Amino acid sequence: MSKRDTSVKHIFDHMNYRDCIEKMDKLDEWLKTTFFPTLGPNSIDVNDVINKQKLCSVSIPENIDQLVDSILEPDDLDRQKRSMLLEKLATSVEQNSELLAQIEAATRGILLRDTKQKVVPILKEYFIYYSTFPLQYSIDDKKTVVGVFSNETPLINVGLFIAPALASGCRIIVQAGTKIFLALHLIKELAASIGFHSITVIPSDDNHLSTYIGSSVELSVVVLFDDLLDKKYSTVPDEKTNTRIVYLTNYRIPAIIFDDADLHAATEGIISAAWSKWAHSSVGTVFVQESILDQFLDMLKKKLSHLKVGPSNEKLADISQCISDLSCLKKTLESSLCMEKFQVLKNDDIWQPTLILGGKVDDGQAFSSTEDDGQVLTVLSFRSIEEAISMANSSKQGLAASVWSENLCLINEVVRKLKVTNIWINGTYGTTAANVTFTPLKGSGVGNFGGVEGFFELLSPYDAFIPKAENDSDKNISSAIGAAKKGQECWGKISKIKKKLLLLAKLKDLLNKHFSSNAEDYYSIIYRYFNGRDSSFATTQSGFDLVSYQEPRGVVAVGNIQDKHAIYVTVRALYEGNAVISQHWIAKELGPLLPDGVLKYIPDTAEATRAVESHNDVQVFFGSWNAEMLPPSHVTDSSNIQSILEEEFYNKVSVVKNVWCDVGKSSLCNFGE
For the whole model, what pTM was predicted? Predict the structure, then answer.
């Protein structure tokens, strides 16, 4: 065996330090004293991804339906007690950060320091943030909510579900993939130790939603942290249900690097964003301006050659070698059509950071990355701003993007054109805060997560099933939607004050004509919605500037619902900058008085409804359906539609866009800490 060179010169030349393996003692002790309940006759081994040894066995329920019906007990904690316990839980999670980090390192290959330094602080913040909600809001009708966590779900998402669910007083079912089960079981233990007994954690990799949709237990919401379009979710019961389904995927996101970016910082940031698993989504594709492509690739390859890849309990490791399966990497490389594939080591028998350079771009498929792609990083070039934005928007994910530039005007232009709701500028990748709402677009999900909106998402049920589209879209309906989409592009650029004045002027005569006896009631409520909830704000948090503002969803559809609801939702949607297509008479009379395409009337027929439901350019549909006239659909047939009760439209006609900028650590004050 050759002797290892430990000279100072060799170390500085090769950055090759002695291995420093951290102990996993807290995990070992916890496993010795932890009891996992017997939920069924079958069990599965949970293995250590570092040494491939068995950690423990967990019981897998044979019939989740019966289990769900039998395990739940109501939570009778008063509001003051609930608030106090949430603060205690935040402290308890922080105190057990080392154990939580060891569990994540052993079961999912997450670096110990990522869990301790990045995940645990934000989890603590979520529990503290929602601890005030029991005192602010009185929840009388406490429902049962379900959270389905796949094995790829970042642990940070626990704060998006368990924290607001505990604050609301809901009874909680957590279905956890077998790899993430131990971490969620620990959080359940910590919650139970301080007085929260309303959480049940079920280990299962069979995430069939039919279990919950068809359960005899009255469920309010199923929150799915997985891809709803996956084939395993294709079968749900045919009966109508008031169980709502919201979901958030962890599709990998794009990054755009312009020619004025700090390339040293950008390459470091891209490496961290591409090969870490702690944040909501990792970067899967980088678009680099053509003029700096060669320089960027040279820097990136050089940094990768000096990168330390090691086990997740290696203290000096830059990247965990356990974050992806080798078979996934091989499969991706075999199917990839690219100009070059780059790996530091010429060894096909180990997982390692891999670059795919260039390639054929076909309808966005080259950069619609999923978490089972072997964690490869695709690098593509662009020439113009428009080309970069077009390619980034071609991805089926609509949650986030990373932008690198020193040009403020360029950043502002890109931010407004990207079809995502979270944008990290320069070195802010992964930054979040408990009071910030995530509103995923496109294939990234449906619903609101985090903040006030995320809290109310768990409370107000609506019908998640809407008419199934069995026929092709009617040409007239498609034409109306196309005109609405075109009209919205101009309408959305008009200031809110101008839209408000125009709408009020045109509505006055219509309301007096149809509601002469109570027109004033309509005026007062319309004014209230003009001045209603607005999630826009700007603040500085933890050394970062955050600007959150509302953007229109695009094309909103309204069924022939009650007069007051139809008028209110139409006015609010138009005020927020959307175009509206509607089956209500208000569209027939008000539409011609507004700019072309902004408000279009469509027939109130089942065929028209099906055509609207099947159209990809309709973002939201407000309506109530007659089950005898229109058959219920599978959830996956309506993934781009939100069918909600009319009373809940106020935060559904717009999305919150969050823009994070690094302002430096000098903005912080530690008071001598």
Answer: 0.84
